[in-house]
Amino acid sequence: MDASFDKKKFKSKFDYYTGKAADIADPKLQAKAQDYKAAVGIRFSSKAALINNSVSLKYFFTEKTAVEGLVSFGDPFALGLLVEEYKPFATNNLKYFYGGGFYAAFTGSRVAGLQGVVGLDYKVPTIPLNFSLDWKPELTFAKEFSFEPQTLGLSARFTFK
Questions:
Q1: Does residue 24 carry a pLDDT above 80?
Q2: What pTM did the predictor assign?
């Protein structure tokens, strides 16, 4: 019986059991493999927001930065554009995001303002589907000055690589 310690063999087994031996254990590689480049879907939100129930179009310019366009066809008709920054959260398929942008609504007269956003974004790993839950307050400064904090939203989108 050989009682010598084989450092190389130990390191190999240690790496195997801790996940260091395989590329799939690298969180950076997992996030890249599960991200999406673009998404199209719908966003349901509170009626208090000027940009409420809307069509959502999202496009990632980088791995962490996306632009989202919102088109609300109700009363009022409204357009919004957000720039969003994404960060990993809990699992590789769940991310949190934050950002801001502007909007314009047409209610007989024009209304414009700024909007912020904070939320969670989940990409279903097995199918091209994404869900997000967000808070998107609006600050109106054209026509009248007002702040609308009651703007929770839930989005469902088809994703594209």
A1: no
A2: 0.76
